[in-house]
Amino acid sequence: MPSDLTAFRDTHIYSTEATSAEIVDDLRAIRELGKSIDVRRSRYKTIFWISIVPAIFMLILTAGILTQSVIAGVIVFLIFDGTFILSIFGWRKWAKRWYDLRLVDLLDRSLAPLSRDIPANGKLKVQLDLRPREIPEKLKREGQANGWKVKYYLDSWLSLSGRFLDGSVFRLTATTKLQKRRKWKKSSSGKSKLKTKSKELTVFSLRLRFKTRKYPGVETIQNAKGAVQLPKGASIRKVKAYADEVFLAAGVSAWDNAAPSKEATTTVSGPHMIAMMFLSVYQILNLSKAIAKK
User: Fold this and answer.
1) pTM to 2 decimals?
2) Residues of the chain above pLDDT 90, percent
3) What is the spatial distance between Cα 222 and Cα 46, in angstroms, rounded to a whole number?
4) Which of 65, 83, 177, 258 has its CA 20 to 30 A from that of 100?
């Protein structure tokens, strides 16, 4: 791992200002680290499930052996139940270090088409927050909704900004709004049961500042929203056209990094949607040029 990513091991926040090629190299290192963490987490998880039944059996057996010999009982406990206990600690340790590689892959795949319109030595500013969503720092408030106790989390996990060859400056952000709900409900038999569910929405926002001499009269466009085209499953949250800036926000409830599918699906291709957002913003700018010519 490059030396400038040493801090990432402790914080799981990647922040830099570098060229697209340098960022891609860093993301490759972050991905490899994430894979190694996932392997260790899965290994301890497997050991836990394999050893849980023998551990219970040996715990009972240990109790019987202790009545005969304390030393023999302790040895049996350390050999069998010790493995089970160590697997719990190992699983928890690596689970805390785990991070979602989807976020890394999304940034990586989104950089490829963008870099074609960025100067070769042009610098990009990136901040990628790979910490878990359900940490105290990301908890915004707690409340109730229709009998549910709700925790509201706000995770602003991506910020990417840079300058295109035409002089336009962009800033792309991604924020996930997460609701964790729980409530106790009585069954027909009278027993109380804890019910939980999650509700999630990820909002991608794109702000593009442009040179007004190249794109005059953008603020006069009446139907900027009509120029926006997004994949099925994505919703337009906001579109605003100003004299020197266009802002577009889109929301998705579920996304992945797969190639866009022609089949009906509830999961949106993240890289494809980001590409469509950039194309839509420039469609608005080109619309202003067409209007100016008329």
Assistant:
1) 0.82
2) 53
3) 59
4) 83
